[in-house]
Each structure stands twice: as C-alpha cells, then as structure tokens.
C-alpha cells in the first residue's frame, strides 16, 4: 500500500494508515467494530485534516437574516457558529460562541411566514407591507411554535399563496433585510454550540455526527479561544473513500449494504413529496420528520424524479428569477427552475445531477464512492424496476462504522441536552 501511494498520500490516507497501525495491534478476540472503536478512541480529533478555509466561517450576531442566507449559500455549508459581537475580547470560547445557525432553522422561519399568509387576510404581507412582520411580536409568535409537528399540511390555497409574490415580498421586506440574527434566535430554534476540544477523540466526533445527528462538529483550541477546525459528515465520508485498499477498511467496506442492515429507512417509511405538491411542503416534511432531504416522485408512483434537500431553500431566497414562469412553485417546477438557473449561472450543484441510486447488492465501499464523488448526503436504494426501496444517508454509514460504549459520554452533554425534538436535520 505504501509503495502504491508513494509520496502522493492525501492527509486522509495518512490518517487511514494511522488507523491501520492501531488495527494491527488490537486483541484478536475483538470484533471488527470493537477494534475500530478502540482505534478511533486512540486518535485525537486534532489529527483530522483541516477543512478548507472557505468552510470555517463564523456568523456575527448582528448579521441580518438576508446576510446569513447569502453567507451560507456562498460557502455551500449547512450551518455556522454565531459569534457574540458584544463579548469581551478575553471571553472564553464558551462565552464567545452563542449557538449555531442552520438552514434547518431558516426553514422553520419561512414556514411560519408562509402560514401567516394562509389566513383569512394575507394581503398585508403579500403586498409587501412590512409593518405586520417586524418587531418583537414576530419573534414571540415564532417562539410559540413549540413543536414543528404542530404544522400540518399546507392548505389547498397554499399553492397560490406561495407563488413568486410571497417570496418576492418576503425577501424585499425590511424584516428579512434588517432583522439581526440575535434578535430572532428563538425563531431559528438555534442548535446549541456543541464543540470538541482538540484533545477529544475521533470516536467522540464520529458518534456526534451519527447517533447524535450533528451535521458538523466544531473543534476549538481553548488556548486561542477560537474554532480550529470544523468536521462535517461529508469530510468523514471523503476520508473513508481515501482509505480504500487498507485492510481495516476492506474488512468493512467490501460488505453489501444489506449485510450491514442498510437501508435503515424502508419503502413504507420513505418521506417523499409528489411532483404537483407545493415545494414548501417538501421543506415542511423535512422539518417535521427530521430528515435532510426528500425525493420528488411522480403522482401515484414510487419512481423518483429528483431530490430536494434542506439547503435548497436558498434558491427561493437568492434567485427570485426562478419564479417568473410559474403561477405556483410546485416541487416539479422548483426542480426545473433551479436546474435552469444553475445552468445559466454555470454553477455546479447536486441538483444538476440525475438521481443517484444504488441496489441492495452494492457494497458499502461502492456507495461511499458515489456519495463522495457527487458531493451529496443521501443515496436512494431502488429495485430492478427503479422503484424506491429505501434511502441511505452519510449518518447511516458512519453509524455502521462505530458504536457508543455504555456510559461513554458521561456528563458531556450537561447543560446542553435535552435538545429540542428534531433539533438537527
């Protein structure tokens, strides 16, 4: 292996070799999962390759909602830590970072605004008047949405209400352009700022990304009082792809997904949206069900036409031109409009790709390769006729790599948990 890679080893492959060295000295009676747990517990999280600088960004607490959407979209990330601009210069990292703002939280806010227009009189907001959507009353109202499960299906009138007029009014409103992140923190249902220190183990990080449903894990340097790295699910999957050929990886990666109990989500539990439903229904389902994306399927069928993920809400906010040809933004119209927009802008995006699918006979190694090469977060499992049989996410794959030892986290979450239901998407 060393001769094959020569001097061209990637940082991820070097980390894989470190795991291999530890793998070779594990007790022979241990199971493969127990061996991997022991290996990852022995590696500090500081060993993980640094994320690109463009992905290690911070959001100031005085940034507007519009600025947050632009920053997350520009850097192609799902969430970012919020820094308290009023914190003293010598504040500890615990006092400096006051939460994580996520596209998932933005979706909650959008859904609330859409439902406000779905009442007896929606003219005030749709006509662009901002008086009814500014000030503390809105924050208080949105805080009142204690559970996203209270949000039912969109009413029959919603297809018209969530036309371009709604989004044009929303994005041109003073509330959207001027309201600060810190002022509407409740409406975002902020995720807490849960970080690791550089001395914490790789196993802790993997468990947070899988079992504890975090999209990314900040790693802080206590001495510098700032974030040293941000590790994402995608970065871990890329590391695994770089470890192909190493014995520890092959002992696991050559198994069929069905042997590992994947997909976890079976056909009758797949959360989906039909092509003629309003696109906001897709985002509502993601939030209600705690998933990061849903397939768009043909009416009455099980064949997927495309996938909409939580981050795609950005296109309703930053690209108003996608509304111009549609009276209402159905899931199918949304996919068509965004693909045209991306082609015109010459931007790369998973939305430009065809649906990425696999079969139950594919190996976990093959699935990892597809996820990594396409830079996507989920792959759909289909039968021979192309019907949906399940979905596999990055989190599912990581969860099959390690397990949580009894009492492992101890008091790690004290002061943070219990997290709100579905706090991560």
Automatic annotation (TrEMBL):
Keyword Glycoprotein tagged: no
UniProt xrefs under InterPro entries: AMPK_gamma/SDS23_families, CBS_dom, CBS_dom_sf
PROSITE patterns: CBS
Gene Ontology molecular functions: kinase activity
Presence of the UniProt keyword Transferase in the record: yes
Pfam families associated with the record: CBS (PF00571)
SMART domains membership: CBS
Domain CBS, first and last residues per copy: 52-117, 265-324, 348-409
Keywords of this entry: CBS domain, Kinase, Repeat, Transferase
Record-linked PANTHER family: AMP-ACTIVATED PROTEIN KINASE, GAMMA REGULATORY SUBUNIT (PTHR13780), CBS DOMAIN-CONTAINING PROTEIN (PTHR13780:SF36)
The protein's name: SNF1-related protein kinase regulatory subunit gamma-1 like
Native organism: Actinidia chinensis var. chinensis
Species lineage: Eukaryota, Viridiplantae, Streptophyta, Embryophyta, Tracheophyta
């Amino acid at each position: 292996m060393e001769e094959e890679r020569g001097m061209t080893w990637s940082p991820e492959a070097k980390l894989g070799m470190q795991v291999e060295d530890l793998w070779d000295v594990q007790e022979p009676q241990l199971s493969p999962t127990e061996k991997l747990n022991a290996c990852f517990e022995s590696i500090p999280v500081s060993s993980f390759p640094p994320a690109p600088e463009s992905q290690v960004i911070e959001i100031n607490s005085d940034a507007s909602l519009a600025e947050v959407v632009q920053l997350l979209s520009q850097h192609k990330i799902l969430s970012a830590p919020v820094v308290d601009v009023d914190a003293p210069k010598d504040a500890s990292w615990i006092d400096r970072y006051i939460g994580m703002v996520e596209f998932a939280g933005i979706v909650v806010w959008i859904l609330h605004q859409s439902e406000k227009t779905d009442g007896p009189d929606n003219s005030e907001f749709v006509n662009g008047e901002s008086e009814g959507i500014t000030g503390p009353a809105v924050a208080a109202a949105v805080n009142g949405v204690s559970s996203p499960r209270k949000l039912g299906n969109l009413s029959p009138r919603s297809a018209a209400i969530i036309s371009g007029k709604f989004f044009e009014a929303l994005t041109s409103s003073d509330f959207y352009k001027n309201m600060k992140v810190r002022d509407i923190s409740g409406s975002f249902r902020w995720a807490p700022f849960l970080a690791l220190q550089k001395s914490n183990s790789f196993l802790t990080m993997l468990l947070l990304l899988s079992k504890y449903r975090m999209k990314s894990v900040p790693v802080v340097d206590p001495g510098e009082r700032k974030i040293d790295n941000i590790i994402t699910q995608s970065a871990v999957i890329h590391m695994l792809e770089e470890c192909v050929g190493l014995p520890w990886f092959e002992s696991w990666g050559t198994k069929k997904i069905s042997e590992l109990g994947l997909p976890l989500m079976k056909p009758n539990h797949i959360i989906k949206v039909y092509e003629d439903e309003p696109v906001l229904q897709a985002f509502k389902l993601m939030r209600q069900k705690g998933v990061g994306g849903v397939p768009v399927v043909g009416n009455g069928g099980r064949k997927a036409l495309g996938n909409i993920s939580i981050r795609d809400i950005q296109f309703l906010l930053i690209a108003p031109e996608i509304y111009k040809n549609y009276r209402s933004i159905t899931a199918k119209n949304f996919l068509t409009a965004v693909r045209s927009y991306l082609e015109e802008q010459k931007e790369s995006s998973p939305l430009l790709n065809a649906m990425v699918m696999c079969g139950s006979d594919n190996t976990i190694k093959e699935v990892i390769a597809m996820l990594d090469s396409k830079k996507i977060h989920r792959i759909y499992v289909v039968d021979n006729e192309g019907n949906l049989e399940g979905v596999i996410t990055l989190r599912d794959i990581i969860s099959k790599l390690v397990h949580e030892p009894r009492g492992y986290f101890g008091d790690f979450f004290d002061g943070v948990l219990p997290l709100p239901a579905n706090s991560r998407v």
